[in-house]
Every structure is written in C-alpha cells, then in structure tokens.
Amino acid sequence: MTTITKTETMKNIVLKYWTADTTAEQIQAAFERQNSWFVNVPQGSALWYSVVLNNLIRSYAVPNTATIETVREVLNKGLSRVTFDWFRFVADISSEQLSKTIRVSKRTLSRRDIFRPDESERLLRVASVFQRALDVLGSIDNARRWFVTPKRALGEKTPLDFCDTELGAIEVEHLLGRIEHGVFT
Fold it and tell me: What's the domain range around 162?
C-alpha cells in the first residue's frame, strides 16, 4: 500500500496531499482523522467539488463515485453551521468576514443550524477557491495569508472579498492560475 506522500500541520490542521497512488482506504482514514484537509486533488469537476465538499463536511465518499449530482444533493439539503465554523477554522477567517462573503447576516447566522441551498453553494464556492489557493501556494499558512491580503490584480480587494460573486471567484481562480504558471500580475 502506497502512503500519502506529504502532510503539513498548521494550527491543528493536517493537510493531506493527494497523489495518483492514494488509495480509497487512505482517503477514508484521512477523513476519519480529526482536522485533516485534502489538497492537490485532480482537477475533474465532479471529483474536485466532491473532495472540497468532503473536506467541508468532514466525511468520506469513494472518489470514483463522485458525481456533480451527489454534490448538488448535499447542497440542496443544506450545509450545517458546524460546516461554516469548520471552514472558518481551517481558513483562519472571522465569522463576520465569511458571513459577509456568503451573504448571510449576523442575525441569521446566529439562529441558523442549516444553511439554505444558495447559501450552501456560496460556502462551497469560497471553500473551493481556498482549496485552489492551498494547491497553488503550497501551505496552509501561505493560503490563509494570501486569501485575506488585498491584491492589486483585484483592485486592492482581498481574494475572500472577491469570492462574494461567482464572477469574482472565477477571477480569483484565474489569478491563482497566473501565479501557478509564473505570470506576473
């Protein structure tokens, strides 16, 4: 059995690096471990969103059964407040920052246990962009810092702020792509 090749621990989060040799058993064991998060996931949309969602809800799904329909079903049922708090912990951002980005008021946040589908989708969008930042920047500390630091390429707004819309999130992903390929921005 091949082992997951690299782990990184930062503020009680253990990053697990996905490789071509990563087995279903290793993935399941990583998700069962408290505070682990998978990175370097292959870029197929069903698998990508499934793993990001599994990172958020801290559960395991067999990678070869990942479908967009499964992701949609989970989003339509709604993500929990626990998921929101877990992602805040992983990304090291405040409740106020994240609730503003996913457009949930503080009052609604204080009384909501399950997010509506549109709110759940926005949370997945932000987590997906953060996942991409982890992959490109190589460490949780770098991704956390980058995510909340204003960028000239984003009009001096932070990547987190830009993720409040789908188009903004796409622009942040494009910026990460340029960084990944060494294009000065």
Answer: 7-180
Report if residue 136 sits inside a domain. Answer: yes
Q: Which residue has the higher pLDDT, 11 or 29?
A: 29
pLDDT band for position 44 (cuts 50, 70, 90): low
Looking at the structure of the chain, the number of domains it has is 1
Say which amino acid occupies 164.
D
Q: Which of 133, 25, 148, 59 is nearest to 96 (CA)?
A: 148
Q: In what order do the strands lie in the sheet with 36-39?
A: 7-10, 13-17, 36-39
**13-20: Cβ within 8 A, 24+ apart:** 13/37, 13/89, 13/90, 13/140, 15/39, 15/134, 15/139, 15/140, 18/42, 18/51
Element (H, E) at 119: helix 117-137
Cα 177 off chain centre by? 16
Which SS3 state, helix, strand or coil, does residue 121 take? Answer: helix
Q: For residue 2, is it within any domain?
A: no
Q: Is 19 within a domain? A: yes
DSSP conformational letter for 142: H
Instruction: List phi, psi (to 5°) of 147.
Output: -65, -25
pLDDT interval class at 162 (50, 70, 90): very high
Residue 94 CA from chain centroid, whole number = 15
